[in-house]
Amino acid sequence: MNTATTWLTRNVARLMGGDSRSADAAVGSDGAARDAAPRSTHERLEATLRRNGEALSPRVLRRLLTDLQQVIAPRVSEVEGGRRAAAIAQWYAGASEAERHDLWLLMCEQFTPDAARVKNAQQKYEAAMGTPDAPQAEAALRRVLTSPRTRLLQRFAAFAQGMRFLVDLRAEFLPHLKTDKRLMPLEAELEQLFATWFDVAFLDLRRLSWDSPASLIEKLIKYEAVHDIRSWADLKNRLDSDRRCYGFFHPSLPGEPLIFVEVALVTEISASITPLLDESAAPSDLSKATTAIFYSISNTQTGLRGVSFGDSLIKHVVETLNEEFPRLKRFATLSPIPGFRSWLGKHCARQLELLDEKRLAELGRAVGAEPPQAAQVMATAESLAREPEDAKSPVRQFIMECAARYLAREMVDDKPVDPVARFHLGNGARVERLNWAGDPSSKGLKQSFGMMVNYLYDLKRIDKHRAMLGDGRIPASSDIDALCRD
Asked: Which of 65, 205, 317, 387 is the most interior residue, by most CB within 10 Å?
């Protein structure tokens, strides 16, 4: 790049609102053009013109900031603040994704705690520790740590559709966190507020039945995340007399389940999802039911990611079922194993190395290649899953052993590696039984060669199982431990 072009680049940058320092950043030491780092909202608010790629001009950005500040102005009442927040939400509804991104950035960068006051309060708190002044110093520190952003979000939650707006807003910006770390303060603040606003103490457990409002039943079809609801007949089967469906509801999101669970009342622990989803099957005799099978749990709100409802939901449902059906003795799941096939694709070779020569030879003969290779074993397992074989099949036995190790031994950051296992084991269940061909659907085959697993909730051992998991040991039945062969 020649001197004239460099001069032009720098001065155009000044004209567009940048300073000479940001202009130099756009031109490298070798004179070549560089992509300038995105300007902060502080820089953009002081500028005259917007840069290429910026959605809102500095003038519009300043007006939007003023509107946000007026929501929490000291003399503005809660009601008026909520009304002003609702007006911004209305603007947001018609804004482009890039314009919405600018609003997120304003919330992150312009409504932060006062750093000097925080530092001063923290120093006073540290100096007061162990003295009679410590409680007062802690209270002062807590007050200055409450950012203007917290008050802003509280005002947005105050108007009629405010909670819906905030939940949807968080769902929209979550995918942007990986590429724009500037959004992290807003994410952390919303997660913390949601954990309080959606605490189980404020939730209502309701049974969903065929007699529920049609608008609510349609939500089950929309949000079912484990086994797709194929038709109204399928849905009616899941809400039949021998089934129960419960959901948690929040008063600020009426008619919208936050999470729901589907339960089958049967006489033994289920090994396959097929009979449970069979629309033509006659309802079970409730007088003989001894076992409750949780076969689908679905979160419905992406914007509430990180806010845990499942633990409390299962506890409340168990209590409710026990009151209605005192004969129930067992509470278990019939769960998918969503991460198994992907994990085995990466670790199959290592699992083969654990076999002795005799079993390796048997497996090689079964797949038609000695010694057997990972790709051949995976392909044969696929065909066996589609056409269930004898339980003594070397390939089936090998895959079952790998699945047992995956569920009962594999941990990352002291947590089970499989997401469904992490959920149920974290709630105090144990890995009870593997079920070959438990889910013959294309989704089941893709996730785990069609295998499913039962997690058992032994009500007398839930605390013990949690303690085991806290010590780095995954609770598992003797059958699962035997399959692990370690």
From this structure: 317
